[in-house]
Write a structure and sequence with these properties.
The complex is a heterodimer.
Chain A (H helix, E strand, L loop, with lengths): L1 H7 L3 H5 L1 H16 L5 H29 L2 E4 L10 E4 L1 H28 L5 H20 L3 H20 L7 H31 L4 H10 L6 H17 L9 H7 L2 H26 L7 H25 L4 H21 L3 H28 L14 H4 L1 H15 L5 H15 L3 H27 L14 H19 L2 H15 L11
Antiparallel strand pairs in A: 1-2
Helix pairs in contact in A: 3-4, 3-6, 4-5, 4-6, 5-6, 5-12, 5-15, 5-20, 5-21, 6-7, 6-12, 7-8, 7-12, 8-10, 8-11, 10-12, 11-12, 11-14, 12-14, 12-15, 13-14, 13-19, 14-15, 14-18, 14-19, 15-17, 15-18, 15-20, 15-21, 17-19, 17-20, 18-19, 18-20
Chain B lengths: L1 H5 L1 H19 L3 H23 L11 E2 L10 E6 L2 H5 L20 E8 L2 E6 L6 H9 L21 E6 L18 E6 L7 E2 L9 H32 L4 H18 L1
Antiparallel strand pairs in B: 1-7, 2-6, 3-4, 3-5
The chains are: A mainly alpha, B alpha+beta.
Chain lengths: 516, 263
């Protein structure tokens, strides 16, 4: 274990600057990728950057787990005046998820991009991807509220471009991207208004400093702070596809290039969700008197409605990607329900589910995209009998699908279980019912896909589905395998989520004791 | 009523914000949607600038006062620039100004400097025989930067009413005091003197520069978003032949149904 640790921990020079390298490396290499002579070369660069980010991310997370908070002062200017990258246990988890999913989807990208993106656009496509990765990592690293807005917009603008590039295959990607742009910008602007209110009340932009001043001056009775909270939750909620602000998500996921769907579904909403959790639990304090009714009467019901309504909508979609997209909105509901409890257990469950959802949704979209590598198959009926032709791809899909449903021995089961515990601890019996119904609906919509793939007979003249190439199967199976591994031994993600909740709320948890 | 009127800047923000949002949701034309989005974002710019503005505050520039007038040509001139708004409010501006050579006894007094077209015209106000001193500034030539007609137009504020104070008092206390410049940028320009300069920042009210700087960033973000949005509209027009949202939506639905039939 120590040898492994030695291998993973970056050399001092790099480790010292790991927080900023995580953002700068993809930004700079991304810019250089424009000059790449071919799409394949650009792909090498993108994979290398993502791998570097994962390395830095893991090294950073290990440092955080040993030494507590890592604070990086941008340009040597001490916070709160200067911009600070502040990494505690909560965002080290988010950094690892995003950089890991970035690497997985980058490896997966090559065949899908070759099929879907025109040859002259490929280098720029990878540039947009790396810019997006830089923005997402920036969101989870920064300790400065306005800086967070800037990174939010860096990643979002890159995302609009990535989604729009699906136009080569399907022109509806353009409208999806346009709507996403309009709504995403409104969301970001709401966020910035909220930050303005908080700045007016506290006189600082540093999030830790904000929290301190609000606590010290009991500012939570101030209308300004309360209005700021509202704006921030709406703004970030829009980015995180919080029901009912999720309208942009299904079309964007359905029409984007399949690599983009894999990447976004497992990172973009996660980064926004992390930011939401950070503001709810770290900048604001769930014990603030005005927050209790908000959590109980606004967030929790919305989360519950999302879990039910969007799962229900997913059942009736014919497009596989739309099924999974609506399911994503429902899963955001699960995570939000965890946050809405306002407890450490709830936050842990929310973050744990966020990690698991990245793994399973990433794998599912990968499998669906892999099936479409040889033929344009997006309908459930196209998948009839596909498992016989592409057993590895579809077994991977099945594993991730079971995790999504919450079958025991998978990661998805454990995070739903944690959520159940957290809500029942609050006495929210109705939440348990909602989780049950939503999981039951998941059985239907995932089951439909699996039933078609494994048990239905292929129609005559249906598009031919072939087994995916190795670069696609590798990340797919890694993700699917992790769903099982974490289902059996969740100590790694669960431990990180618990450490995150502990770091943010400053309480000692005795909810699970780590490994089971 | 006064309460409402005093906060006119917030009303502007609210009107712009709601108007912008309404346009975004109501318009079917995509360009109009983007225009609405722009208006919405502009309201946020105003909001931040309002936050940062202090009544009677100036830009955060250290106003420096010169030495004690022992050197020839130790001329200090400051222009009250960008003062149009303040002038409209009829507020008093005292911009620290000509610190002239002190062989004649002067008294602290205010001289209104009419600055127009880059030429400083010292029009003494309440002058009892000190106009000549004011013009003495000219006599001293190029060393008194910005005070001499046409000497250094670059330093002269554009078309603003600058109220200058001419003083020769041995100490530099004539400098802008708290009653002084609102929105006037006291841009101290000083001469060749190697004298240690006296900072009087403590006496000056500054506006908070941070929100302004933040909004510069926000403007850049807004421009980037707008350009991506417009590029998308161009592509949508190529693909659909229209930029009306409802027509595009109809085409999408038709396409979806056609696919559904095929499946």
């Amino acid at each position: 274990m120590t040898m492994l640790a030695d291998l993973v921990i970056a050399p001092t020079v790099l480790a010292m600057h790991a927080p900023v390298l995580l953002v700068i490396a993809p930004l700079l290499v991304g810019a250089a990728t424009v000059l790449a002579p071919s799409g394949r070369f650009a792909w090498y660069m993108a994979v290398a950057t993502s791998a570097f980010c994962l390395w830095m991310g893991i090294s950073l997370a290990m440092e955080v787990s040993q030494n507590g908070v890592v604070s990086y002062h941008m340009g040597g200017w001490a916070p709160p005046r200067g911009i600070e990258f502040r990494i505690d246990a909560l965002n080290s988890l988010a950094v690892v998820i995003i950089s890991f999913m970035g690497l997985m989807s980058a490896i997966y990208a090559q065949p899908a991009v070759e099929r879907e993106i025109r040859i002259e656009k490929r280098p720029m496509f990878y540039t947009a991807y790396q810019t997006c990765l830089a923005g997402l990592l920036g969101i989870v690293l920064t300790g400065d509220a306005f800086n967070l807005f800037v990174f939010l917009e860096i990643s979002s603008i890159a995302t609009y471009v990535l989604v729009a590039l699906g136009a080569g295959r399907d022109r509806r990607a353009l409208t999806a991207s346009f709507n996403y742009l309009i709504l995403g910008t409104i969301g970001a602007t709401f966020f910035v208004i909220g930050v303005g209110f908080l700045y007016a009340a506290t006189g600082t932009l540093n999030m830790a400093d904000m929290a301190r001043i609000m606590e010290a001056d009991s500012l939570h009775h101030s209308r300004v702070v309360q209005a700021g909270f509202g704006f921030i939750v709406v703004g970030l909620g829009l980015k995180a596809a919080m029901f009912p602000l999720h309208q942009w998500l299904p079309p964007a996921y359905a029409h984007a290039p399949s690599f983009v769907t894999v990447f976004l579904s497992s990172t973009a909403t996660k980064a926004a969700f992390y930011a939401l959790a950070r503001f709810m639990f770290s900048v604001f304090d769930p014990t603030f008197s005005f927050l209790e009714p908000v959590f109980l009467y606004v967030l929790a019901p919305l989360a519950a409605i999302a879990m039910l309504a969007c799962s229900f909508q997913a059942v009736f979609q014919t497009d596989v990607r739309r099924i999974l997209a609506y399911s994503s909105v429902a899963q955001v509901g699960y995570m939000l329900l965890g946050l809405a409890t306002g407890t450490a257990a709830g936050l842990t469950a929310g973050m744990f589910h966020m990690a698991n959802h990245a793994l399973m949704k990433g794998a599912l979209f990968m499998a669906v995209g892999a099936a479409a590598l040889n033929a344009s198959v997006w309908k459930v009926s196209h998948f009839n009998g596909a498992a016989a032709r592409a057993p590895l791809t579809f077994t991977g899909l099945a594993v991730a699908g079971f995790s999504l449903m919450g079958v025991p021995l998978t990661a998805g089961f454990l995070s739903k279980w944690k959520l159940l515990e957290a809500t029942l601890a609050e006495g929210w019996w109705w939440a348990a019912v909602v989780i049950g119904i939503s999981s039951f609906l998941a059985l239907f919509y995932v089951g439909r896909i699996m039933q078609a793939a494994f048990f239905a007979k292929a129609e005559e003249g249906a598009p031919e589905i072939k087994e995916a190439p190795f670069v696609v199967l590798l990340p797919l199976w890694l993700l699917a395998g992790l769903n099982i591994v974490f289902g059996l031994n969740p100590s790694l993600p669960l431990g990180m989520a618990e450490a995150g909740a502990r770091a943010v709320l400053g309480v000692d948890l005795n909810i699970s004791g780590g490994a089971q | 009523m006064e309460f409402v009127l005093e906060r006119y800047n917030y009303w502007i923000i609210i009107v712009l914000m709601m108007g912008g949002l309404y346009i975004v949701f109501e318009a079917e034309n995509m360009i109009k949607k983007l225009v609405g989005l722009g208006i919405f974002q502009t309201s946020v710019l105003f909001f931040y600038v309002t936050l940062g503005k202090t009544a009677g505050g100036t830009a955060p520039i250290l106003v420096e006062t010169g030495g004690h007038g022992d050197d020839h040509g130790d001329g200090h001139a400051a222009e009250a620039g960008h003062g149009a708004a303040a002038v409209a409010h009829g507020e008093t501006h005292a911009a620290p100004v000509l610190h002239e050579e002190s062989d004649v006894a002067h008294q602290l007094e205010t001289v209104e400097a009419e600055i127009s077209e880059g030429v400083t015209e010292l029009a003494p106000n309440n002058v009892d025989g000190h106009a000549s001193e004011a013009h003495g500034a000219q006599a001293h030539g190029a060393q008194a930067h910005g005070a001499e007609p046409g000497a250094d137009p670059g330093h002269v504020a554009n078309g603003a009413d600058a109220h200058g104070a001419v003083s020769d008092l041995p100490s530099p206390e004539f400098i802008a005091t708290p009653h002084a410049p609102s929105q006037a940028v006291a841009d101290a320009v000083y001469g060749q003197s190697g004298e240690p300069l006296h900072m009087v920042a403590g006496d000056i009210i500054y506006s908070n520069p941070l929100p302004h700087v933040l909004m510069l960033t926000a403007i850049v973000v807004g421009v980037a978003t707008l350009s991506v949005g417009l590029a998308l509209v161009v592509r949508i027009r190529e693909a659909y032949g229209t930029i009306e949202m409802d027509e595009v939506r109809a085409a999408d639905i038709a396409e979806g149904e056609a696919e559904g039939d095929a499946a």
